[in-house]
Protein: Glutamate dehydrogenase
Organism: Salmonella enterica I
Amino acid sequence: MDKLSYASDSSTSAWNTYLQQIERVAPYLGELSPWVDTLRHPKRALIVDIPVQMDDGTIRHFEGYRVQHNLSRGPGKGGVRYHPDVDLNEVMALSAWMTIKCAALNLPYGGAKGGIRVDPFSLSEGELERFDPPLYQRDRHYHRAAERYSCAGCRHQR
């Protein structure tokens, strides 16, 4: 198994937890075992800068992530995590778990997930509303057009 250059070495990261889970179930996959290595590699990951105009007129910049783990079953499905500690490793793991969940339920979706490093409780409703367009409209072309992306709960949740 090749280590991803951008993945954390931390044994406590969500991504490493996911990889450990894959290792535990690999012996039971039978004819699907050749695909185990595919589950260890996200299809694509994007890190974006999200400039947001605050209510007082200033512009603040936030780091955002979008990961499409696997699209073999259909468009990537997954929501957005708004949290001050979210990082690429966590979003990779969440997108991978979406891949597994959709496959387990035989849904015609792949796994995807987004994340924005922000404390949503420190912002107004208007400021939170201004997060979605930059992340999902401006960068949509990167994810191979809208038909390859299905957002589950893209709007923030308080």
